[in-house]
Structures are given as C-alpha cells and as structure tokens.
Amino acid sequence: MKKKIIFTLSYFLIFCSLCFAKDRPIITELSATGTTGTNINLSWKLPKTPEPKITKLLVYKSSLPIANYTDISNATPYVELDPKLSGWQDTVEDYNDYYYAVLCQTGSTIFDIILPSINSTVNGTHLIVKQKKTSKNKAVAAEEKIIPEGTLRETPLPYLDLTEGRNRKKTVISDKAKNVVPSLAGKKINSEPELLNPYIFEEDLIAPENGDDYLLFEILKRSFIQKNYSLAQKQLTQLLGTNRTESVTKRATFYLGEAYYFEEDYKNAVKQFVAVYSDYPAVAKKWIENSLDKVVIEGE
Q1: pTM of the full predicted structure?
Q2: What is the C-alpha to C-alpha distance for residues 300 and 295, in angstroms, rounded to an integer?
Q3: How many Å apart are CA 70 and CA 264, to the nearest integer?
C-alpha cells in the first residue's frame, strides 16, 4: 500500500510539473538510441514559443540516472547546443550505459527542472554489439526468418554482461494472488513437474522500429533470450517503473513472471502471472499451475 501511495504521488508531482512547465522553456519526448557504430543518437521535441526565449540547450551526460537537478547541479554541461536543434549525436568508445538530460538556458538562467522520461532518459543507453557475420547468404536468411511463437532465436546477438549478481529476496503471494490461485491450482503431485519452455508473444518476435515495443524487444534480446534471467528481472522491473503503453506493460509483466520462474522463485512468478491472468487466461493458467506444482514439491 505504501509503495502504491509513493508511486501515485510521484506521478502527481510529474503531472504538476508538466502543468507548471506548459509554455515554459523545457524540451519534451527526449529519447536516446544506441547504434552498432560509435554513436548514441538523441532526439527531443522543442517547446512551442517559450517565454522567455531559449538562448542555448545544455546536454548533461551521466553513468547514473538523472532523476532531479541535484544529480547534475555541480556538473558542467557535456555540450552546449544551438536552441533550434531537436537532436544531437554523442560519440562514445565503450559499451557502458549512459543517461542524458537536456535543459534550456535563457540568457544566464538555466531552467533547472528535471522530468524523468520527459527531458531526461530513465533507461541507460549503450552501443549495440555488432553481430559476427558468417556469410552473406546466412546473414540474409537470419534477417528474414520469423521465429515460431514460444521458441528462442537460434543465434541471438552477443551479450556483454556489465552487472553484478545479487541475492533474490523471497516474498509471499499477495492477497490478490491468493484470491485467484486456489481456483487454478491442481492437485498435489508426487513427482517434479516438467519445466516449461520460455514463452514469447508474437508481437516480440520481430524487432520494431522504435517506441516502447522496441525497448521491451531490446531487453528480451539482451537478457531474456540469453537466459540471463537475473538481469532480465532487473531490466523488466525498471521498464515497468516507467510510463509505458498498456500493451507493453502487460507483456513485460508476463516476462517478469517467466524470469522469476526460471530463477526458481515460483511464488513471485505466480504474482506476475496472476496480474495479467485476465489478459492472457489460457497461457497464464498454464504457467500458474506449473509454478504452484513446483511450490508444492519444494514444500514437501
């Protein structure tokens, strides 16, 4: 309940900030995209006829999320840009995650309001590791191939692990889960149930061009499909903590359940599957029942 209040309050503060920032010098829709070369591309939307007039744009860059102005108050702008620009290209030499914020300056005054996902990025952006080429024909065939639903890619892109492992905390099933789970649970069994294969929705089998679906696709490609489920949990949780489309939120929740499942945290897995049970009843029922069977085996 406390987390829900904090979450609601955060969105209320952002809403108030947006109302305050209307017709003020603040950019919106900031996005950062990595490439297979040495560049990270930034784009944003300029404010309409702000008062006072913008004299320059200030780009800040950090290896940590920029959640408020105090995170960069003592930092020097990474670059100063012409106020008419709506994009910029950063050149980097490593594969680390970077976070960006773009502020407007009017004369000698910096409009120092930070709105995550509005004028600062909430997800780290890094260069994309180039796929090792074998032959021209094979590369073309791999690019055009559509993977059947519920199966993994045969040759996923290489993954560079820059994270450290962490202990997973066990939690109990929520009240919401308890109300739904009894009707889905099977009878107690005496043998270990078969481990399910990873399930991927049809929408995520082919890379989208941009948007929230692209962010989810990148997480699946770089952690979930690589079977790095611990990292997948972290990235999916971060994605779900931002303002995303309803469709992406539902699928990301299901994938988070799978990540818990393959990390043998079946109770937390059930909580995620129950949350989207009404959206994907058939497939969610299968995963809930299997998870509950494994909880029974563990408790014997």
Answers
A1: 0.42
A2: 9
A3: 39
